[in-house]
Amino acid sequence: MTNSALKIIEVDTYQGLSLAAAKIFIEAVRKKPNLVLGLATGSSPLGMYQEMIADHKQNNTSYEHVRTFNLDEYVGLAADHSQSYAYFMYENLFKHLDILLENTYIPNGLSESPDQEGALYEEKIIATGGIDLQILGIGANGHIAFNEPGSPFTSRTRLMELTEDTREANARFFNSIDEVPTHALTSGMATIFDAREIVMIVSGKSKAEAMKQLLTGEISEDFPASILHNHPNATVIVDRDALNAE
Ligand code: GLP
Known about the structure:
The protein has eight helices and ten strands. By secondary structure, the chain is of the alpha/beta class. It has one domain (7-194, 207-243): Rossmann fold (3-Layer(aba) Sandwich), CATH 3.40.50. The strands form two sheets. It has a seven-stranded parallel beta sheet. Helix 1 (14-31) packs across helix 2 (46-59). The radius of gyration is 17 Å and the shape is globular. The two termini are 22 Å apart. The model has no long low-confidence stretch (mean pLDDT 96). 2-amino-2-deoxy-6-O-phosphono-alpha-D-glucopyranose binds at residues 40-44, 71-72, 137-139, 145-146, 166, 170.
C-alpha cells in the first residue's frame, strides 16, 4: 500500500487508545468551538466518550456550539428504545456535556421513507458545512458504520440490510438475536469519506483479523474500512490486542 497516507498510532491498551482519540477530539473542539463532529456507537468509542466527559467536567471544554452527526441507526427502534443508537448517544455522551440536543443529528430509524430520510440527512450535513472530524469503529468483517462488504465507495446515507454476522456480533446488547433489527439507516461510504479528518479506533483480539486485513489487504469495496487508505487525513489508533492476529 505504497500510496497510502494512512497514519497508524499503536498504543498498549484500550485506555491508551481512548485517551489518544479523546485528545484529538478535545483539542479540535477547543480550537474550533463550532466544530462538526461525526460520532459512532458500539463498544469501541465508549472509553473515549468517558474521557471527553471527564475533560468537560475538569477543564470546561464546551460543546455548546458543536454540531454532531451519528453514523447510523437501527430501523424500527424509537429514540427512547434502550438499544437505539439515539439512546446510546444520549446516555453515554450527550447528557453529560453542555451540547444542545437540537444540534445532535441521528438518522430517524422510524422514518417511513428511508430514501427520503437518507437524502435529508445528507442535506443537513451539507448545511452545517460538512463533517470536520469523524470517529469510526470497525466491524470484524471490515464494515464501517453499517456499510457492509460490497458497499459502493460512492454510496450515501441509505437503508442497509445487516449481515447475519453483524446481527450476531450486536446480539450481545439485546435479549436474543431475534430482537436485533434486520436493517439500519447508515451513512454511506462517500458520506464518511467526505469528513475532513477521520480517526478510526481498533481494539481487542476480535478485531485483530480485520486490522491485519486493513494493513495488508487491497483497497476494495469488499473490505469497507480499506477506503481509509485513500483519505488524505485519516488515522488509525490500534491497541496491542488488535495488532496481534494469530
Ligand atoms: C456496529 C456499528 C459500527 C461499529 C461496529 C463495531 O455494527 N454500526 O459503527 O463500528 O458495530 O462495534 P464495536 O465497537 O462494539 O466493536
